[in-house]
Each structure stands twice: as structure tokens, then as C-alpha cells.
Amino acid sequence: MRRSNNNINWTKKDLLDLENLSKEEIELILQTAASFKEVSAREVKKVPALRGKTVVNLFYEPSTRTRISFEVAAKRLSADVINIATETSSVRKGETLIDTGKNIEALKVDIIIMRHNYSGAAVMLARNLRASVVNAGDGWHEHPTQALLDMFTLREKLGRLEGLNVSIAGDIAHSRVARSNIWGLTKLGAKVTVCAPKMLIPPSIEQMGVRVTHNIEEALAGADAINVLRMQFERDKEKAFPSQLEYFKSFGITKERLESAKKDIIVMHPGPINRGIEMSSEVADGANSVILEQVTNGIAVRMAVLFLVAQANDYIKKNK
Ligand code: CP
């Protein structure tokens, strides 16, 4: 069994979800991220940790934050980075995901970071490749690095995760961000409440260890943080909340609603924000908002993930 400096194991070649990580593995990522954070404050924002490694960004769905953040993270670790635009690749000619992955691997690529519209796509790719696979969001399943950067930001702001009351409001049903946050936060001892209209709460979500409310005032009362999710109109146009205006009136986070919450409540959003639908601009840009700090912290978290999976995979390949 291999051990890191702080005696916690990291042996996985991939990062696919938080459901299958232990509390200790999540802690190790967050600790490693904390040690990488200062790199971005240096004049020369670079360390040689992944020098000689090649990282590919393979995104089958649109992304601003995640794709750029992974690219910046890999470059700050001195890796070479290739971005594949799937709309101009042979994916358009009907190539399967596994064939695409194997061809990328044949180019001696070390890590494939993939976003895909199908839940389970990252797991399938990882099982078929020796290269590391990092899940950058798969369908409605998980978005592990988003949850890790949310947790990193919460801990940085509030000093702990254990015992915190964290509410997640919005389109829970379609949200891979919600699922990853629930797995991660509950493993680290936070108490999670989810809030949405009935049609946007998946059945049996209580089995994940969360409290459910359909009342936004109830979700805000006593919460240390509220993570507000985007309404995903592109995924379920027919069944999403019938009126955007109605949603904002009933569930939108406004300055007035925040006045009934804890004074220092942390307001988060994974982005992109639908201003005036899930939250007002006043709140998004207000004193409680840490939305842009989340984006900044994403770099350190993704540096940690790339570093750990690359190290583990080197070990696996050498000891096979
Ligand atoms: N938070 C997030 O996943 O944003 P992007 O879709 O822009 O990557």
C-alpha cells in the first residue's frame, strides 16, 4: 500500500465521482489544493509537477469555467494541454467514445479530462483506458471537481465543513453539481438541505442523507451557506418550472430574502448564472457572494486532482 506524506492513500488513476471516494481521499484532495493555491499568487505562476505530461480536454458539452480552469491548472503544473473541439473532430463522423479515447491514448496522452452529456460516460472511458480520466461533468450524474471547489471555498471562508448547515437550492433533479456536493458535504460532516419545487426534486433523494424543503425561506433559515443552482432549461424544456418569473417569485434569492437569513450567509453558484431567475444581480454581485472566489479556487483544486491522478497512474504503470 502506497502512502503520501500525510499518511493518506491516493491510489486511483481517475477521478470519476465523489460517491466512491472516502472522507480521507476527499480531505487529501482539499489539503493538496491548499498547498497549490499559492502558486497562482506567484509572479511566475508555474511549478514543474507535471512537466512532460500531456493533458487533453475532451468536452462534448459547452463549458466556460471548467474547461478553462482545467487548462490553467494543467499549465500551472507545466503539462502540455490540448483542447479537442468535438464538433470539429471525427466524433461528428460517428466515432465511438471508446475509439476516440483509445486514439487519444495512442498519442501518448497521460490524462483525459472529459465532459459528456451521458451519465456514466467517464466511468466507461476510464475502464477502457490506461490513461487517467477526470470527470468534468457527466449528464445528471456528477461534477466532482465543482463540488470539491465548492467545499474548498466553504472551508476557506468558514474554517470547517463539519457541522455546517448548507442549503442547495434550484434545479436539483437535473444537477450533477447537487449530487456531487451532497456526497462530498455529507461525507465531511455537513448537514445538507435541498430546496426546489416538487418537480425539480428527484424521488428518494432523502436516502442520500439530506433534508428536503419546498420553501426557500426555510432553506435560508439557519443556513451557513446557500449554493444556488442554475435552472437547466436546455435539458428538460417541457418539464422545467412553467414560468421563469414565477420561479423567481417563489424561489429566487433576493436581497429581501437574504435579510431573513444569517447575516454572514455565504452565497454560492457554480455558474453560469441566470440573473433574475435563480438569483438577483444584487445578490450575485453582493457582499455575501463568493461566486468568483469559487472560480479562482477551482484552479488549485484541479491542480490537486491532476497531480494526484498522474502520480497514482505513474505508480500503477511502474508496478504492473
Ligand atoms: N460550473 C460549471 O461547470 O461551469 P461551466 O459549464 O462553464 O464549465
**Molecular shape:** globular
Q: Which stretches of 5+ consecutive residues score pLDDT under 50?
A: none
> What is the mean pLDDT?
94
How much of the residues is beta strand, in percent? 5-15%
Bound molecules: phosphoric acid mono(formamide)ester
Order of helices and strands: HEHEHEHEHEHEEHEHHEHH
Report on this model:
The protein contains eleven helices and nine strands. With 320 residues, the chain is an alpha/beta fold. The strands form two sheets. It has a five-stranded parallel beta sheet with strand order 7-6-5-8-9. A four-stranded parallel beta sheet has the order 2-1-3-4, sandwiched between helices. It starts with 22 loop residues before the first helix and ends with a helix. It binds phosphoric acid mono(formamide)ester. Phosphoric acid mono(formamide)ester binds next to α2.
Condensed summary:
This protein has helices spanning 23-37, 65-76, 97-106, 121-128, 144-158, 176-187, 216-220, 244-251, 255-258, 281-284, 291-318, and strands at 54-59, 80-85, 111-116, 132-138, 165-169, 191-195, 211-213, 225-228, 266-268. It is built from 11 helices and 9 strands. The structure holds phosphoric acid mono(formamide)ester (CP).
Key terms for this structure?
alpha/beta; four-stranded parallel sheet; five-stranded parallel sheet; binds phosphoric acid mono(formamide)ester
Task: Write the SSE topology.
Layout: H1 23-37, E1 54-59, H2 65-76, E2 80-85, H3 97-106, E3 111-116, H4 121-128, E4 132-138, H5 144-158, E5 165-169, H6 176-187, E6 191-195, E7 211-213, H7 216-220, E8 225-228, H8 244-251, H9 255-258, E9 266-268, H10 281-284, H11 291-318
Parallel strand pairs: 1-2, 1-3, 3-4, 5-6, 5-8, 6-7, 8-9
Helix pairs in contact: 1-5, 1-11, 2-11, 3-4, 5-6, 5-11
The structure holds phosphoric acid mono(formamide)ester.
